[in-house]
Design a protein that fits this description.
This protein is an alpha/beta fold. It has a single domain, classed as Purple Acid Phosphatase, chain A, domain 2, CATH 3.60.21. Helices cover 35% and strands 16% of the residues. The chain is built from 9 helices and 10 strands. Helix 3 packs antiparallel against helix 5. The mean pLDDT is 94. Keywords: Plasmid. It comes from Erythrobacter aureus. Pfam families: Metallophos. This is Calcineurin-like phosphoesterase domain-containing protein.
């Protein structure tokens, strides 16, 4: 499917009360609704950024289109949105079935299936926002292929760039950064290179790879805690999260 929406978007959300973000939903919209209620989420004052993978595997994927249009909600693409597109436009029904797409078989009419694919794919691959606290924060589903946010924007906003398609796919599918981080945490004496911060952005949030609990390395946080497997969705108040990281860094510096 050829995307008509820009692959990179920037939004100034500094006037919001809070910016929240959440890892992969995978059809667990009942849990999302409950946790947002507990947090006092108000779409007139707050913004929620979904990190992709709204559908498949969980019990309520059929609510995804409603959430695409909800007030106060923004999102980036995940690989499962693309898998739905593959099922509709490339005949990859078996692939989708194996990826948790059994629910999609209940949509019999071809036109409705096409509508699902088009709506789910109507989102950017990467998003940058300015938070109420004045921070520049990025949101990408899976990974960033370079350590430079400015380069990512340049490539994604240039459809004819020779690296555009590979970068687009990397942002939705790859796990290089988190795999290296987890390897180094388990093997601190490893000779493998340490993932570096992403330059040109204050912080970046990712989903895609399930972690036992949300973790941060350098200026990257991974917050998919596997809701469809029975865990909680991890919903982060972005500025509060970054304030806490700053405090921890200050304390570590003082203790050194």
């Amino acid at each position: 499917m050829k995307m008509t929406r820009p692959a990179f978007e920037r939004h100034d959300l500094s006037s919001a009360r809070r910016v929240l973000t959440v890892g992969d939903i995978h059809g667990c919209f009942d849990r999302l609704e409950r946790q947002l209620d507990e947090l006092g989420f108000d779409p007139d004052q707050d913004v929620l950024v979904l990190l992709g993978d709204l559908v498949d595997r969980g019990p309520h994927s059929d609510q995804a289109l409603e959430w695409c249009d909800r007030a106060g909600v923004r999102r980036v693409l995940g690989n499962h949105e693309q898998i739905v597109d593959y099922a509709v436009n490339r005949g990859a029904k078996g692939f989708h079935h194996r990826a948790g797409g059994i629910w999609f078989e209940q949509i019999v009419e071809p036109e409705k299936r096409r509508n699902w694919a088009e709506t789910l794919m109507d989102a950017p691959v990467a998003m940058e926002i300015t938070t109420p606290g004045g921070r520049r924060v990025g949101f990408v589903h899976a990974d960033v292929p370079t350590n430079c946010w400015t380069q990512l924007e340049k490539v994604l906003t240039s459809p004819d760039h020779p690296e555009h398609d590979d970068t687009w796919a990397h942002c939705m599918w790859e796990r290089h950064r988190i795999d290296r981080i987890e390897h180094l945490r388990d093997n601190p004496e490893s000779a493998r290179p340490v993932p570096q911060p992403i330059r040109g952005i204050d912080h970046v949030f990712f989903g895609h790879t399930i972690v036992h609990q949300a973790l941060t390395h350098q200026n990257c946080s991974f917050i998919d805690t596997g809701a469809f497997r029975g865990g909680d969705l991890t919903i982060v108040d972005v500025d509060a999260w970054l304030d806490r990281l700053d405090q921890q860094a200050d304390q570590a510096e003082m203790a050194a």
